[in-house]
Design brief:
- The complex is a heterodimer.
- Chain A has helices at about 15-25, 40-45, 75-85, 100-110, 125-140, 145-150, and strands at about 5-10, 35, 65, 95, 115-120.
- Chain A is α/β, with parallel strands linked by helices.
- Chain A has a 5-stranded parallel sheet with strand order 2-1-3-4-5, with helices on both faces.
- In chain A, strand 3 (about 65), helix 3 (about 75-85) and strand 4 form a beta-alpha-beta unit.
- The longest helix of chain A has 18 residues, at about 125-140.
- The relative contact order of chain A is 0.17.
- By secondary structure, chain B is an alpha+beta fold.
- In chain B, strand 11 and strand 12 (about 320-330) form a beta hairpin.
- The relative contact order of chain B is 0.03.
- The chains are: A alpha/beta, B alpha+beta.
- The interface between A and B is medium-sized, with 20 and 23 residues.
């Protein structure tokens, strides 16, 4: 494994974030994870702005884990922004939310989400879900080299 | 030539005419005077003798037939007198009798002229005689001869010249007669020809007359045929009666009558008793006055049917006296009935409680019923103009010929007018109604409607706002209530993993309890969300085969071991009109309940049925399971209400609440019957699609 960020976790709730990190860790996926607290930070990170200025022109994670209920720019808005960008839209985004609402699913898929996972309250099941996500998107799934497209 | 010779002589020639007929004398005188002779007329012998002695007469012309003295005797007298014997005498004779000639020759006449004389012949004779007297004084040879004529000896003493002259005269007369005869014959021939042509013309006229007569006969026959056809086929009765009112003739018979019933019978046999008097009076009057009588009466038609007739009695005269009466009767029964119907119908407008008017094409009022004067606030007058506010509309409607309905306002009253033109009569009937109250009521309804609509809009927007709030609330519930739960569960797990060696078994058990309660809490949240979704989501109605839906829900819900053990029956259910997704949820909840509560029975049974009643579909699901205490039936459909311990039957107490919510939203009802240990029946109803 190299130092490149593989997962961008967008989660405002520190408890949820800790649970997620633990779940990732228990599946050996936590080495290259960056967590941001809202949509604005996520944008700053991707475009290497504000606190993430030193990082270069752009930061392209291999996968974004996105909560929907976020302060400032919420999950659906962020999804819309990323999927509107011709390059960024190539980054797979998995919505990881407690919302089981049909309307949220429909809106997410309409905006081009790649996957929609409801967070189970049962932590054992949550670990199981995270393992499946990591296995599928980071190992099984093939994606183009987006960084080459930026240069 | 006579003129020349007369003119050349110096002496005047005087001629004596002895003629009894003044007309003939005047005629002869006129002829001779036109030849320049001097003429003296004598009507009798005496006058002739006297004039002979007084006048110097050159020639005597005498008629034979004269009274007192005939021509022969005058001639004899002249010839026997010395003074006058040289005066030539011409006798005018018809020469119809040889006697006359013998007499003439005997009396010594110089010439004979036959009557009727030819003027030319007479004048030439006169001239000849006068010229011989004057010029050639030939010797007169006396001539005596005895002849036997008619058995009588006659002595003719005449001079030879005279005899010859007479013969010549006679010959000339004969020639002349012959000429006349030929002329007459020619005239006759011409007359004959004319006659023949006349006969021919007349014959041809006659022929034409015959043809014409034939044509007339033909026409008469045809006319007679037409007359007969007409009389036989005319619907009116035409009858001939004698003076005693007996039938002599009837053109046709009413149903049920034949000739033998009528002819010879008195017409009064066929007249109803109430009409007999009037008929008798009119019949008498017709006979006595000879005038046509017209009247109506009631007659018996065929089959003793009573008919109204309109009759004319026409007197038929013979020798100036009325001998027979012709009766022409028309059956006006139907006409009368129609008149009666019209009379009754005519009461409709007058009795109509609403105003009814009739207006002509000039806008003048022809008729108005009582109600018109009572209710219409216009000033109305029969023959006067209707108000100007509607006049042109009415006039135009009559012109267009298409009925029209209009509303018009007058004096704070509103009238609805139906104008119905009767084109062939050039007027319109107008049916009016005072609709002021209706209009006011309509306006009120309209106002109320507007208010109501406004309120609906307001209420809707309030509801929408409330709904949005509710949505936001449930959304945050689904997110925010779960996050702490996940934390509680997750961190309990952390403790169990990270401090496994420190915790004793009780500590671990308590942590497990914490975790299992978070699971229950999570389920409660899920159920609450499901229930709230039932309230929020829109209904999409469509037709549902409920039988099919119940069966397929059972197939999906029941596990195989249950299916093998349970008796599940579904009757033919009424088709529903509802939201299929929600209705499916109803069946899932009810069927899974029934399965659950009958699962402990030895022979579990589930029966589903339904019916249509009073525009409502009713469905039921009956099981033979645990049942319930009817006392607590009101708690059955409440949220999180349970009538069984959760140890006995798993459940969250939300299923029936959802069923009730769904059915209520469809406008239906749910109810249940049960007895503990004896099974339960759940009912729900749905309105039939309108």
């Amino acid at each position: 494994m190299n130092n490149e960020v593989e997962i961008l976790l967008v989660e405002d709730n520190p408890n949820d974030a800790e649970l997620a990190m633990r779940a990732l860790k228990s599946n050996n996926l936590a080495n290259n994870v960056i967590r941001v607290c809202d949509g604005e930070e996520a944008i700053d990170y991707i475009f290497a702005r504000g606190p993430f200025k030193a990082g270069g022109v752009m930061n392209i994670p291999k996968l974004i884990l996105l909560d929907l209920k976020l302060p400032k720019i919420d999950g659906l808005e962020l999804l819309k922004l990323i999927k509107a960008d011709p390059v960024m839209k190539l980054i797979p985004i998995v919505v990881l939310t407690s919302s089981n609402e049909e309307s949220d699913m429909i809106e997410s898929y309409r905006l081009g989400v790649n996957s929609y996972i409801v967070k189970p309250v049962d932590f054992d099941k949550f670990i199981e879900s995270v393992r499946n996500i990591g296995f599928y998107w980071l190992l099984l799934n093939k994606q183009p080299n987006i960084k080459n497209l930026i240069k | 030539m006579k003129k020349d010779s007369a003119g050349s002589t110096t002496k005047i020639t005087e001629i004596l005419i002895a003629e009894e007929s003044l007309t003939q004398a005047t005629q002869l005188k006129y002829l001779l005077e036109s030849q320049n002779y001097k003429v003296t007329v004598a009507c009798n012998r005496k006058e002739a003798i006297r004039k002979l002695s007084k006048h110097k007469i050159s020639l005597v012309i005498s008629d034979i037939l004269m009274p007192e003295m005939n021509g022969y005797e005058l001639c004899k007298k002249i010839k026997s007198n010395k003074d006058t014997e040289d005066i030539p005498v011409i006798l005018l004779t018809r020469l119809s009798d040889p006697e006359e000639i013998i007499e003439g020759l005997s009396c010594g006449a110089d010439s004979f002229i036959t009557k009727p004389y030819n003027e030319k012949h007479l004048l030439s004779n006169i001239e000849k005689i006068l010229s011989s007297e004057n010029g050639n004084d030939y010797q007169k040879v006396p001539f005596g001869v005895q002849i036997l004529f008619n058995g009588e000896k006659r002595m003719i003493q005449a001079e030879q010249q005279n005899v010859i002259k007479l013969m010549l005269d006679i010959y000339e007369g004969a020639v002349h007669q012959n000429e006349r005869f030929e002329q007459t014959q020619e005239e006759l021939r011409l007359l004959n020809e004319k006659l023949e042509s006349l006969v021919e013309d007349r014959t041809s006229d006659l022929r034409e007359e015959i043809i014409l007569s034939n044509q007339i006969t033909e026409k008469l026959t045809e006319s007679e045929g037409k007359w007969r056809t007409l009389v036989t086929n005319i619907p009116d009765y035409i009858a001939l009666h004698d003076s005693e009112a007996k039938f002599l003739f009837l053109n046709h018979y009413a149903n049920g009558f034949s000739e033998k019933d009528i002819i010879g019978k008195s017409l009064f046999n066929f007249i109803s008793s109430e009409s007999k008097d009037i008929y008798r009076q009119n019949f008498k009057k017709c006979l006595n006055t000879g005038q046509i009588q017209k009247f109506e009466y009631i007659a018996f038609g065929g089959n003793k049917e009573v008919r109204t007739h309109e009759s004319s009695l026409i007197p038929i005269k013979q020798l100036g006296k009325v001998s027979n009466v012709m009766a022409i009767a028309r059956d006006i029964t139907e006409h009368k009935q129609t008149e009666e119907t019209i009379r009754i119908l005519a009461r409709f407008p007058s009795e109509n409680p609403d105003p009814v008017l009739r207006v002509d094409r000039n806008g003048s009022l022809l008729y108005a019923n009582e109600a018109s004067f009572k209710f219409l606030t216009w000033k109305l007058q029969i023959g006067g103009k209707i108000p100007s506010s509607i006049r042109n509309t009415v006039i135009n409607t009559i012109k267009e010929g298409i009925a029209k309905e209009i509303d018009t306002e007058h004096d704070q009253r509103i009238y609805s007018l139906k104008i119905v033109p009767v084109s062939e009569e050039s007027y319109a009937n107008i049916y009016c109604r005072d609709i002021t109250a209706i209009k006011q009521a309509l306006q009120e309804i309209r106002n109320l409607n507007t208010q109501l609509e406004q309120r609906v809009i307001e209420r809707t927007s309030q509801l929408e706002a409330a709904n949005k709030e509710l949505e936001a609330f449930t959304y945050s519930v689904s997110h925010d209530l779960r996050a702490p739960l996940r934390a509680v569960d997750g961190f309990s797990k952390f403790i169990l993993e990270d401090y496994e060696n420190i915790l004793d078994s009780e500590g671990k058990r308590l942590l497990y309890l914490i975790r299992s309660n978070t699971q229950k809490m999570d389920q409660l949240i899920t159920d609450l969300l499901a229930f709230s979704r039932v309230n929020r989501n829109e209904l999409n109605f469509s037709g549902i085969d409920m039988t099919q839906m119940a069966i397929s829900v059972f197939d999906e819900t029941a596990q195989d071991d249950i299916k093998n053990n349970i008796s599940f029956t579904v009757d033919q259910l009424p088709e529903a009109y509802a939201d299929p997704a929600f209705l499916k949820q109803v069946w899932i909840n009810l069927i899974s309940n029934a399965i659950k509560f009958s699962s402990k029975e030895k022979n579990p049974e589930i029966k589903i049925g339904g019916k249509i009643e009073n525009h409502t579909n009713t469905y039921f699901i009956k099981d033979n399971g645990a049942g319930f205490n009817q006392e607590y039936v009101h708690k059955l459909f409440g949220v999180f209400q349970r009538l069984h311990k959760s140890d006995d039957f798993e459940g969250k107490g939300i299923g029936l609440a959802i069923v009730k919510r769904i059915i209520s939203r469809h406008g239906g009802k749910v109810w249940a019957e049960g007895k503990e240990g004896k099974g339960a029946t759940f009912w729900f109803s749905l309105p039939v699609k309108k």
